[in-house]
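Protein modeling request. Please complete all fields; requests missing the sequence field cannot be processed.
Requester role: graduate student
Desired output: 3D structure, token encoding
Chains: 1
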Amino acid sequence: LTLLDWISGFAYENTKYKDERDVLANKIYSRCYALTMNREEAQDIAQETFTKALERIDSLERKLNELERK
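Delivered output (70 residues):
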């Protein structure tokens, strides 16, 4: 399981990494809730986190490829 596989799994419901994705999503939501003590706000923050990760996946892929070449 690579980081890119894991992040891209958030874009698709049917993925072989669904279980791992769901576990981490729950951890992130729980942390957001602990910080805000507000269910709706925690959901919004968690969703923004995953959206930003997906928006930046190309950049992340380039950086990981650069690190692999070194």
